[in-house]
Design a protein that fits this description.
Helices cover 40% and strands 16% of the residues. The protein contains 10 helices and 8 strands. Strands 7-6-5-4-3-2-1-8 form an 8-stranded parallel sheet, with helices on one face.
């Protein structure tokens, strides 16, 4: 049975003091407990602080990225073992910004997924099309091959630790948002592709929407039958907005 998730991806925002202040405010302002998992993904420098502050709460901590190697001469990189050693059990992989700015390929991402799963981590794997793909009607093909090339080599049992986040790249940080119908169309398409490859387990895969979700559009987006929550960017940087989005689901 798939479950609801609201994850906040902070990207390169918030220093240690700001992280501590936000998380303490979040603890105090969290909506009443409901059947939704809340995740915060701060910068690498603040992961340990976040795990300490959130240790006795229902809010989990995720990393925004990790290296595919177990260790070695990779200056500036972070391994899966380093993450799990401080209590981080979830990692975001394949975000469009990693693909665009750091040239992460489907083959590299498949390698990262494999490494994370070897360490029993949960992966939030991002897929999504650019505006040119949407305009040329190739958006479904783009997302299909992102899934196929990085995830469809996995055995069935691995999917217990896979969450998919659909992020239309043209709606990230632009103020543009896919309509609820567009979001549902793509979430349904993704679930259908997983079903074609793996059968009934597709009904248990959590698929998040990640594209300029805000308090005023969250409830409409989350009401779609195949949308199981959100990977939130800008609105996750404000406690009031983030808790409103949690309440919306």
């Amino acid at each position: 049975m798939r479950h609801k998730i609201i994850a906040g991806n902070w990207k390169m925002h918030k220093n240690a003091q700001e992280t501590g202040s936000f998380l303490n405010d979040l603890i105090n302002e969290m909506p009443e407990e409901k059947e939704v998992e809340v995740i915060i993904a701060p910068a690498f420098t603040n992961l340990m602080l976040a795990t300490q502050i959130l240790e006795d709460t229902n809010v989990a901590v995720a990393a925004q990225n990790m290296h595919q190697a177990e260790g070695g001469a990779f200056t500036g990189e972070i391994s899966a073992d380093m993450l799990t050693s401080i209590g981080v059990q979830t990692v975001i992989l394949g975000h469009s910004e990693r693909r665009q700015y750091f040239k992460e390929t489907p083959a590299l991402l498949a390698n990262k997924v494999d490494t994370a799963l070897r360490h029993k981590m949960r992966v939030i794997f991002c897929v999504g099309e650019e505006l040119k793909d949407r305009k040329s009607k190739q958006f479904q093909n783009v997302v299909f091959y992102q899934l196929k090339d990085s995830l469809f080599h996995l055995p069935k049992e691995a999917w217990e630790n896979i969450v998919i986040a659909y992020e239309p790249v043209w709606a990230i940080g632009t103020g543009e948002t896919a309509t609820p119908e567009q979001a549902q169309e793509m979430h349904q398409f993704i679930r259908e592709q997983v079903a074609h490859q793996y059968g009934d387990l597709a009904n248990n895969v959590t698929i998040l929407y990640g594209g300029s979700v805000k308090p005023d559009n969250a409830q409409t987006i989350f009401s779609q039958p195949d949308v199981d929550g959100g990977l939130i960017g800008g609105a996750a940087l404000n406690v009031g907005d983030f808790t409103a989005i949690i309440s919306a689901i």
